[in-house]
Amino acid sequence: MVRSSDEGHTWSAPAVLYDDPDDNRDPHIAQLKSGKLICTFFSLRKTKTKTKLGRGFTATGSFFVTSADNGNTWDTSCTVLAPKGWDVSAPVRQMRDGHLVVGLYKLKQMGANEWAWGGTTSSYDDGKTWTPPVDIGKDQHLPLDAETDVIQLKDGSLFAALRSGIINMHYARSTDGGKSWSKAMDIGFKGQSPHLYRMSDGTILLSHRVPDTSVHLSHDETKTWVGPLMIDNVKGAYPSAVELKDKSVLFVYYEEGKGSGIRARRFRIENNQLIPLNL
After folding, report:
1. Which of 95, 98, 170, 173 is nearest to 134 (CA)?
2. Beta-carbon contacts of residue 43 (< 8 Å; ≥ 6 apart)
3. Around Cβ 179, how many Cβ atoms within 10 Å?
4. Is residue 131 part of a domain?
5. Is residue 254 part of a domain?
6. Largest Cα–Cα distance in the chain?
7. Domain of 116: which CATH number?
8. Which of 81, 216, 225, 247 would bridge with 206, disulfide CB 3.0–4.6 Å?
9. Residue 173: which domain range?
10. Burial call 126-148: b when 16+ CB within 10 Å, e when fewer
11. Is 229 a domain residue?
12. Are 60 and 80 in contact (CB under 8 A)?
């Protein structure tokens, strides 16, 4: 982890947040209304046999660690978020009534083909316990290697974005807080590693990889989207966004590929365009 006390202009030296013998991946940090920080991730364990999905690794499940002191110290052992077979590549999202929802996804191999689906798990006790995963699109047999992320809309319903590495990004809706979901539907454009964020003016940002590192904007609660607007011309992965005090947006993401680095860019959004600003 690294820290910035000046809204991304400068950053501290890296420090280890959590480590164990497995390959811990896709960490995302959220702060709950209680002040607790929760970092979600999934883990891979090296195997002797290479598989198409695991590439020499087997997934061991989804996990989290917490901090009660603003990230100065963290749990030294992780807690299971979702059972083996479910991965997580998104932060915990807290709903207006206080309950927590986090997006999950599951891969399944069928002969030479792959199909996958999304899901969510919820907590009603500030992250102490989590419900069994609820499937999104399981019976549709779509290639949704989903990296699911979730946002609550103004009417209280939930919107989930689901990646595909083959077809267009998909989405689903829930009207019962994540206890059940609609079918996964085509969002109309390609995208991977989705991250959802609501700005103070109500605009919803959907940042993603493909093409390169991009973002779509919605001014009508996800009914329609403007974009893609280019954040960077690298194939950035897992871009996330945060609004700064001056209403500009800071995007943070990493470069995909060998020798990749972590990048940050700051923009003002004006007339459905990204206006680059200095950090």
Report:
1. 173
2. 20, 22, 23, 24, 25, 59, 60, 61, 63
3. 13
4. yes
5. no
6. 53
7. 2.120.10.10
8. 216
9. 23-188
10. bbeebeebbebbbeeebbbbbbb
11. no
12. no
How far apart are alpha carbons 208 and 232 in whole angstroms?
Answer: 11
Q: Which of 136, 80, 140, 139 is nearest to 104 (CA)?
A: 136
Q: How far is CA 196 from CA 87, 113, 114, 215, in A?
A: 18, 29, 26, 10
- 227 domain residue, yes or no: no
Would you state the structure tokens that stand for residue 181, as one six-digit string?
A: 């979901």
Task: For residue 83, give the 3-state DSSP assignment.
Answer: coil
State the total domains in the chain. Answer: 1
Instruction: Tell me the helix, strand and coil percentages in the chain, rounded to 5.
Output: 0, 50, 50
pLDDT per residue as tens digits for the range 77-132: 999 999 999 999 999 999 999 999 999 999 765 445 668 899 999 999 999 999 99
Q: Which residues, in sequence order, are CB contacts of 27 under 8 Å at separation 6+?
A: 17, 18, 39, 40, 41
* Per-residue three-class SS string for 29-42: EEECCCCCEEEEEE
- Tens digit of each residue's pLDDT (9 = 90 or more) over 20-70: 999 999 999 999 999 999 999 999 998 876 655 556 788 899 999 999 999
Region of 21 (left: φ > 0; alpha: ψ -120 to 50; beta: rest) is: alpha
Which residue's entry shows tokens 């020798």?
Answer: 259
